[in-house]
Amino acid sequence: MGKIAISEFKAKCLAVIDEVNKTKKSVIITRRGEPIAELIPAAAKVKRKEWLGSMKDTFEIVGDIMEPVIDLNEFGAYRT
Length: 80
Prior knowledge:
Elements: E1 2-5, H1 6-11, H2 13-23, E2 27-31, E3 34-39
Parallel strand pairs: 1-2
Antiparallel strand pairs: 2-3
């Protein structure tokens, strides 16, 4: 299709959109011969990875995860 005048696009909008979707080729919409817009096909939908569980098996637990990081005697709030 290539180029189409805005008046023709207005009259045949749905048909032009269907054609762009079918052929996967863009159409330039013109006013008085000057390009004013471009109708492009939608990008293919990319299936994104489900976020729940996406980090599974990407790390390793080393040591005791319940043990405090620092000695409680070194922590100011525990000093008496």
